[in-house]
Amino acid sequence: MRFGALGDVVLATPLLRAIHAAYPAARVTVVTKAAWAPLLTGHPCVAHVEALAPGEFLRVLAARLRATAWDYRLDLHGSLRSRALRQLVGGTWQGWRKPRVRRALRVWAGVRAGRAVPPVAEQYFAAARVLGIGLDAGPPEIHPTPTDEARADELALPSRFVALAPGAAHATKRWPLTHWDQLAAVLAHRGLPTVAVGGPDDPCPAAARMDARGIGLGPTAAVLRRAALAVANDSGLMHLATAVGTSVVALFGPTVPDLGYGPHRADAVVLARALPCRPCSVYGGAHCPLRHHRCMIDLMPETVAATVEARLG
Questions:
Q1: Is 140 among the domain residues?
Q2: Could you read off the pLDDT of 210-223 as tens digits, one per residue?
Q3: Residues 226, 115 share a domain
Q4: Which domain holds residue 116?
Q5: How many domains are contained in the chain?
Q6: Is the peptide bond before 200 cis (omega within 30 degrees of 0)?
Q7: Could you tell me the CA-to-CA distances from 144 to 39, 174, 224 in Å, in that order?
Q8: Nearest to residue 278, comparing CAs of 232, 231, 234?
Q9: Could you give phi then psi for residue 187, rounded to 5 degrees?
Q10: Alpha-carbon distance 142 to 140, whole Å?
C-alpha cells in the first residue's frame, strides 16, 4: 500500500522487483490512488492494482481488500489514511518508520548534521523484513503499456529530443520559467529540440519545439522513454524519467538528495547551488524562507545547457 505521491509510488518499484525475484509465483496487489494506477497497470511484477478513486470511502476499498486472504500486507505509506485502512481491512501489517527526526535535523542544522538519510526506495525494504528480502541494486522501473506507447507515437516526436519537466508540487522547487525558456532556446540553437512534459497546469517553455503536457501519466512515461535526456526539477517526473531508463539532469533548490529523495541508482546528475541556507525544507514550500530563492534563480540556463550537451556527448 502506497497512496502517493507520484515519486513515492515510482520509488516503491525496486521493492516490487525484489519481491518478484524472491517469490516469482506470488501474486502482488498494489493499493494506491487512482491517479497513479496507470503507471503500475503494465508492470510485470504487479498482478493487480487496487485503486482508491477520488472521493471514495476507505470502507469501500477495505471491503474489496477483505475479499482476499492475504499472506502478507505491507504498508509503505505510514499515514493516518493508511493506518485507518489497516484497521478496516484487519490482519497483521508490516510497516516502516519514517526518518522524520533525522530529516528535520539535517534541515535545521545543515547537511553536516548527522548521516545522510537512506534513499526512500531503500527505506521501503524495512517493511518487507518479514520476507527476508535484501536490498535491490537497480533503479526504479516503470513499463508503459502498448496503449501508452501508441499515444506517444501519435505525437510525432522529434527523432532526438530533450524532455523538459518544469513542474513540481511545491513552488520553491520550481526553476524559474524564464530560465526554462532560455534553456529551450539555447538547446534549439544547438540543434537539440525540446519537448515539454507534465500536467496540464504545469508551465510550458515558450521555445519548446512541442507541448506534450496533459496527455496522462502512462503516455508521459512513454514520451520520457523516447527522450535522449530529461531535465527536471526535484519532482515525481524526475523519478519517472529515471524509471523508464532515461538519463536525467535534476535541478535541486531548497531540498538536497541526502534527504532521501534524490535520483535512485540511475543515470543522473544533480545540479545545485552551494548556498549556506540549503536545505531549507524536506519537501519544498510555497515561499523561500529568506525571500530570495537564490538556490534556483542563481542556477543559470547556460550551466544546465552545458551539462545537457556534455551528457549527450
A1: no
A2: 999 999 999 999 99
A3: no
A4: 6-131
A5: 2
A6: no
A7: 7, 26, 10
A8: 234
A9: -65, -40
A10: 7
Residue 95 included in any domain: yes
CA–CA distance, 53 with 75 (Å, rounded to integer):
19
**Average pLDDT rounded to a whole number, residues 277-294:** 95
Could you tell me if 86 and 186 lie in one domain?
no
We report the CATH number of the domain holding residue 218 as 3.40.50.2000
What's the rounded Cα separation, in Å, for the pair 269 and 45?
28
240 and 92 in a common domain: no
Cα 255–chain centre separation: 14
107: enclosing H helix or E strand:
helix 100-109
Please compute the mean of the pLDDT values over residues 94-106 and round it to a whole number: 89
Residue 139 falls within a domain, yes or no?
no
In 3D space, the residue among 232, 229, 262 whose CA is nearest the CA of residue 244 turns out to be 229
Claim to verify: residue 165 and residue 287 sit in the same structural domain: yes
Task: Tell whether 136 is covered by a domain.
Answer: no
Residues 179-217: b if buried by 16+ CB within 10 A, e if exposed: bbbbbbbbbbeeebbbbbbbeeebbbbebbbbebbebeb
Distances from the Cα of 123 to the Cα of 108, 119, 127, 143, 197, angstroms: 22, 6, 8, 23, 29
pTM, full prediction: 0.96
Task: With H, G, I as helix, E, B as strand and everything else as coil, classify residue 68.
Answer: coil
Given a contact cutoff of 8 angstroms between Cβ atoms, the answer to whether 225 and 219 are in contact is no
pLDDT digits (tens, 9 = 90+) for 232-276: 999 999 999 999 999 999 999 999 999 999 999 999 999 999 999
Q: Which of 107, 131, 155 is the last residue of a domain?
A: 131
- DSSP per residue over 131-145, as a string? GTPPPP-S-------
Q: Are residues 85 and 152 in the same domain?
A: no
DSSP 8-state assignment for residue 173: G
Same-domain check for residues 48 and 196: no
Whether 153 and 43 map to the same domain: the answer is: no
